[in-house]
Amino acid sequence: MVNVILVDYRALDTLGEISVVGIVGLIVAALLARARPQALAPEGKGRRRPTLMLQVAAQWLLPLGMVVSVYFFLRGHNAPGGGFIAALALVSALYLHTVGHGSAQAEKHFPLDWTAWIGWGLLVAIVTGLGAFAFGHPFLTSSTPHLTLPLIGELHLASAMAFDTGVYLVVTGSVMLTLVLLTRLLRSEPNA
Amino acid sequence: MSIEFLLASGIAVLTATAVWLVLRARTFDVILGLTLMTYAVNLFLLASGRVMAGKPPIIRDGAAPLLSQYADPLPQALVLTAIVISMAMTALVLVLALQGRSLLGSDHVDGREPHR
I need a surface site. Which of A38, A59, B49, B115 has the fewest CB within 10 A? Predict the structure, then answer.
């Protein structure tokens, strides 16, 4: 119910919210691209490998976390879930992988441009809202076409899911951008 | 010990701690204080939608459409928005604090140690 309010009845508030999240991600990227903060790493510690338990857990929990994220996303319309928590579940899984395997390895596995995710997410959200114009309704009106698929049966799809996809992309992109840049800071410290 | 009393006490404790932390004027303490204040204000907004268990946000036939009969979902939705935005702003202010600490060399929000 709460998620329906967020992506359907009060979707314009959510559009503003994801804009803020996206802008903050970009500001953090801009701030960390210039001067690198110095006094970050603890003194006197060499680079330490992650413990074996953490490595194995990260390896197994990454695909599970991705599936959980997709599950939260798909059940979002009238049950607890939705774009925001799905994005944060995905970020948790990806960052656990980073912590368990080291950021160099993680960037090899996932060489994704998180800034582009922010842009695409906002584009998807706004285009979904504009799509309502095609049917003569105000901005961001959503509809629920009922489809009948051969094997699955009747499917109740809400066009708010396209808007939720935009939310998912923006939140994932922004939070991962912040985390990846902060991790890269720690890695570039000379005594880290 | 009713649930409203517990919720109100929790909000009070969080706010008091937050105000004390912010007044310490060290960058990390200010961030921590603002986070606690965020929790307190979000709980406060949530409480404005009536704290009750087991009442779905649906108006039933026969029952009057008053706030005592159903849970108001709108404050919960707006609190979600507030939580997400405050998470983003906390990330931003953390990065600013890091940059400030490295550029100014001081922990204090004024950029230099206060004169005694």
Answer: B115
